[in-house]
Amino acid sequence: xxxLVEKIPRKTLFVYAISLLCFVPITKGADxxxxxxxxxxxxxxxxxxxxxxxxxxxxxxxxxxxxxxxSNNASDGFYNFTAGTSSPDVAYGLFLCRGDVSATVCxxxxxxxxxxxxxxxxxxxxxxxxxxxxxxxxxxxxxFAALDTSFGAILSNPQNVTNxxxxxxxxxxxxxxxxxxxxxxxxxxxxxxxxxNYSPLQTVYGLAQCTPDxxxxxxxxxxxxxxxxxxxxxxxxxxxxxxxxSCYVSGYMxxxxxxxxxxxxxxxxxxxxxxxxxxxxxxxxxxxYHSDGSADLLSYAWQLWTEGTPLDLMDPTLEGSYARNEVxxxxxxxxxxxxxxxxxxxxxxxxxxxxxxxxxxxxxxQQPRFLSRGRTGSNTLNELGSDKSTSKxxxxxxxxxxxxxxxxx
Length: 409
What we know:
The chain is of the alpha+beta class.
C-alpha cells in the first residue's frame, strides 16, 4: 500500500484530499463520550442485584422512562424521580447534564445512558455512570440531596506540561475560582467555568459542577475534595478530571496547545482547521518556520489572509492544479475553525454546509490570539459564562487517559 501511495503524483493526492475535505459530508458520532462507571460487585451480595422481570426491574424501567422524557426540558439540566413505593424495590434515580450543553445533547446523553448503564452493569441495583456530557445515577436507596464522595474516579491525560510550577499555580487559581462560583451559583445549576493564561500561546481551562440538590456548603466541600486530589494524582499533567457522585471538576490545557504537536484532539473543529491548512500548504504545523519570523503555520496563514494574499500559502509545487476560489474558501473556513473563542468556531454541521454550498456567506474570521509574533500574555483570570463550551477539544476516552478509582472518603 505504501508503494502504491508513493507512485501517485502529489498533485493528484492534493486534489483528492481537498475533495474529501470540501465535498464529503462530515458527521460527528451521536453517542456521548463515556468516562467511567461505578458498578458494584454483584456476586458478593444478593441485596445489590435484581432478577429479570422482578418488581425492581419494573420500577427501574419506569424510572428510565421518566428520566428520559424529562431530559429535554429540565431547565437546569437536572432531574430526579422515585419509582415504586415498597422497599427494597423502590428505584431512585437522577441525571445531571453538563451545564453548558444544549437540551438536545442532554436528552441524547440521558437516553443513551439508561441503556448503556444496564448493559455495563446487568442486574445491579446501584449504578453511577459518567460521560463528558452527563451523569446518570440509580439506586434502591435514596440518593437525593445528600453529599456523596464515597467513590469516584480520576481521569488524567498522560502528557506533562513543560513548566509544572507555573501550570500548577495557574490551575490552582482557576480551580479556586470555579469552586467558589459553582457552589454559590444563583442560576441553580451549580456550574462554573473559567480560564487563565499559562503562557502567551497556552490557556488553562477549568470547570466545576455539583448536583443542584445538595446545599451550597456541601457543593463547596465536594469540589474542594476534588481539587485537593490534583497534586497527588495529576501533578503537571496537561489535563485531568476528578469524578464524584455529587460533583466533578475538570482542569486542562487549551486546544491551541495542539499547534506544537503535544496534545491530541483529532475530532475538534480546531484540529480540522489545522489539517486543512496543512494540506493546502504541504507543511506540518509543528515543524513550520518561515523566513518572515512566523513560528507556526497558523500565524503565517493569518498574516497572509490579512495582507490579502491567502493563496501564497499554497504549496508552490501544485501551481496550476487547483481552482483559486475553492482553495481560498477552504482557507477562509480553516481560519474560522481556529478562532480563539470556541463559541466563534463553526459547528461541524455548519462546516459541511459551508463546504457544500457557495450560497452560504462566510463571516470574517477573528484574529487568533495565539499568533507567534508581537504578542504578550499574562495570567489574568477570565470567567466564562455558563453558555461557553470549554471541552470541545478534549476527548476523555479510555484509550487516551489514565483512569484511577478514588478511595472512599
